[in-house]
Amino acid sequence: MTLLYPGFLWLLIPLGLLLWQGTSSIVQRVHLMVLMLIVISLSRPVQEQALQEADIKAKDIIIALDVSYSMKATDIQPTRYDFAKETISALLKENPSDNIMLLAFTTNPLLLSPPTTDHTLINIALQSLNPEFILTKGTSLEKLFKKLAAMKMGDKNLILMTDGGEENDLAKLTSLVEESNIALSVLALGTTQGTTVTKEDGTLLKDKEDQLVISRINPLLSALASSVSGTYITPSSTPEATANDLSDALEENEAKAEHVQKMQHHYLELYQIPLALALLLFFMVHTRAVKYLFLLFALAGLPAQASMLDDYHLTRAYKSYQKSDLNSTRRHLKQIQTPSLQSRITLANTYYRQRAFKKAIKTYKSIRSTSTNVKQALYYNIANAYAMLESYDKAKIYYTKTLQLGADADAEHNLRLVALLSDKKSASLGIAHPKSQDSSSSKSEDQGEDKEETRSEDDPSSGSGGGGESQSQSKKDQKTKQQLLSTGEEEQHPLSSKVYELINKGYIREKQPW
Fold this sequence. Notes:
Elements lengths: L1 E2 L8 H10 L4 H17 L2 E4 L3 E6 L2 E7 L13 H15 L4 E7 L3 E8 L2 H10 L12 H10 L5 E7 L7 H10 L2 E7 L6 E2 L17 E2 L4 H8 L3 E3 L5 H14 L1 H4 L1 E6 L2 E3 L2 H15 L6 H8 L1 H21 L3 H9 L6 H13 L3 H10 L5 H17 L3 H13 L4 H19 L21 H4 L18 H17 L9 H7 L11
Parallel strand pairs: 4-5, 4-7, 7-8, 8-11
Antiparallel strand pairs: 1-2, 2-13, 3-12, 5-6, 9-10
Helix pairs in contact: 1-2, 2-10, 3-4, 3-8, 5-6, 12-13, 12-14, 13-14, 14-15, 15-16, 16-17, 17-18
């Protein structure tokens, strides 16, 4: 046996002295003994047991932002990169208490912000990053995953914001993700139609054969997410709605990524023994002990009392819900010791009415029932919540599940509605379709674009010759490269030149920069 709070035992000294000095009153002696037993209870006597593993909730989120050249494409408005930045800012607001790490990557990954709950620091690092100072043009998911594998963080929630670049080795990437214990959520920034990329001088990017470079989303991203049981997300109409989708994906990964194993001591509490003796002595002195022994049995019957209290709080919650006093409803429901089907549904409905749709969805999904009618109602409510979050694709899934369990006119009507809204949302993303050969254009570079769009976006640009790029500009670029090779130094920038130096490491040796 051990004591968790042995400091309380100092109180036994004055009580022991009073008892030792003696007193003519038996009642006073018993009172002193009662106080001594209470002091022993306060010291928390326990029987220490072996160390056991316990699950501790601790969600860590890693955001990896692609800052390669192709992220300047405008098929996602205003650009893929700007849309990603706004989504990250919205995501930080959605998860204020989570531990978040921010990385930027092109050919090389770089840690911009270590894991922190101070999201202001992450926003500062994000806003101070200037893509104009990044010389590397390519995208290497392999190097990113290798860096994550080297981090000793246990299970990781990774939000990958990228267009995929030139990656093509699915098997290798899948192996790296699985070895790194990564719960992957991919935000695919780009479209299958793709678009051209505008350079800083206003001309369109071309490869060494003077063909227009068309930057498209890499289909490998969808295959990667599927192969590792991850989540594949396309941009919603706004960064805020996209951040909601990402938060939902994190919640779906909760079972895998939010629990870490920790060794903890477990104890068998013994404080009830001296406390029960103290009560027994007190009642023996002041009353007939036998008459009040039922109090001891009442203490042992606390579960029955707890059940009565649960019924009371549930009744009060129903009354508050009918009066639209949702804060009181939630407060009463939180005090229920053993949640029932009715209390869980009422709590989820309360979250829904308070427009806390993500909490409502999580609560609805946690409810288990063998009743078809209950399941159908739960699926319908989940679909409504997803629709309110503008996650129309998920809403369609749950409306369909509702109809699979039986006819429902409301679900059928809502399904048609969200299908229409989903189409409108896709159209509002600002997809830039390549111009055809016959279309009029004010720039000669745009002509023949349809013929050349079969060229891979990964084909390298020569950096010289045609495409509106003069010989003098080419020589200037070559001169800049030679200076960087000879000096190994770069211009100082607000985020620290060391940051850009690490990102740009080895950029001259890139073979497929787009």
